[in-house]
Write a structure and sequence with these properties.
The chain is about 40% helix and about 25% strand. It is of the alpha+beta class and about 280 residues long. It has a single domain, classed as oxygen-dependent coproporphyrinogen oxidase. It has a seven-stranded antiparallel β-sheet with strand order 1-2-3-4-5-6-9. Strand 7 and strand 8 form a beta hairpin. It starts with a helix and ends in an 11-residue tail after the last helix.
């Protein structure tokens, strides 16, 4: 399959998934609030692609949720290209993806994050994953989430779940605090074994994320919470901010490749606290 066809297939899927996830969220909110959409270009002087980020705020369920789609291309900055697979001797790249971050009104509903992407340099690969960050422990929910993820991974390869769960646990860790960001999930990168099989897996990750977040919300939306619960949510959000600004690869990649700053930083919660 030609590379241009692969680019079209992946970028079209990410765009359709953005539309689908936004519709799910607005349906959950019963259309009381809607997404605000901003389209952007990587360069104002030449064609280097761009994207669209959508943000919904102050809903009955969601404090803030961002759903970002991008398709960008051009050249990596010299100080960055050595860090990217396949770009050491050729700075040209193409990348498309979707990222979603959800911060909830009800502190008993965890924050959730998902992203998938396809990157082309002299090599081409998929990356992404999803993870869940509760502010209050819920072992039953944790077990159900990981059971769903394992079932999804097993449809493709029996080794995926243990491998990608471990990668997630190692990646979403705050070294300066020596603590995990949340209860984990799955994380993968440099996935380039077989395009059709890898792309099928990536699509399944997106569909499974939709299933997971809708189930969690519907089960917990009417549960009562306390002021103490809300305080803990704000503190946990502070940890979220620390990770995204200090360690997150996607944040660094976006900021160093001319991405839209507001779209990249959509992951930050509206209110956070530190103690």
């Amino acid at each position: 399959m030609e590379i241009e066809i692969k680019k079209d297939l992946t970028s079209n899927w990410f765009k359709m998934l953005q539309d689908s996830i936004c519709k799910c969220i607005e349906d959950l909110e019963k259309n009381n609030v809607e997404f605000k959409s901003t389209k952007w270009k990587r360069s104002q002087k030449k064609d280097e692609g761009g994207g669209e980020f959508r943000i919904l705020e102050n809903g009955k369920i969601f404090d803030k949720v961002g759903v970002n789609y991008s398709k960008v291309y051009g050249k990596f900055p010299k100080n960055f290209q050595k860090k990217i697979l396949g770009a050491k001797n050729n700075p040209r790249f193409w990348a498309s993806g979707i990222s979603v971050v959800m911060h909830m009104k009800n502190p008993l509903i965890p924050a959730m994050h998902f992203n998938t992407r396809y990157i082309c340099t002299t090599q081409n690969w998929f990356g992404g994953g999803m993870d869940v960050t509760p502010s209050k422990k819920d072992n039953k929910e944790k077990k159900e989430i990981h059971k769903t993820l394992k079932k999804m991974c097993d449809r493709h390869n029996k080794n995926y779940y243990s491998k990608y769960k471990k990668w997630c646990d190692e990646y979403f860790h705050l070294p300066h605090r020596n603590e995990p960001r949340g209860i984990g999930g799955i994380f993968f990168d440099y996935k380039k074994d077989h395009f059709e099989k890898d792309f099928k897996f990536v699509r399944d990750v997106g569909v499974t994320f939709q299933t997971i977040f809708q189930k969690i919300i519907r089960e917990k939306i009417k549960k009562r919470w306390t002021v103490k619960d809300k305080e803990m949510q704000y503190i946990k959000r502070g940890r979220y901010v620390e990770f995204n600004l200090l360690y997150d690869r996607g944040t660094k990649f976006g900021l160093q490749t001319g991405g839209n700053v507001e779209g990249i930083l959509m992951s930050l919660p509206p209110i956070a606290r530190w103690k």
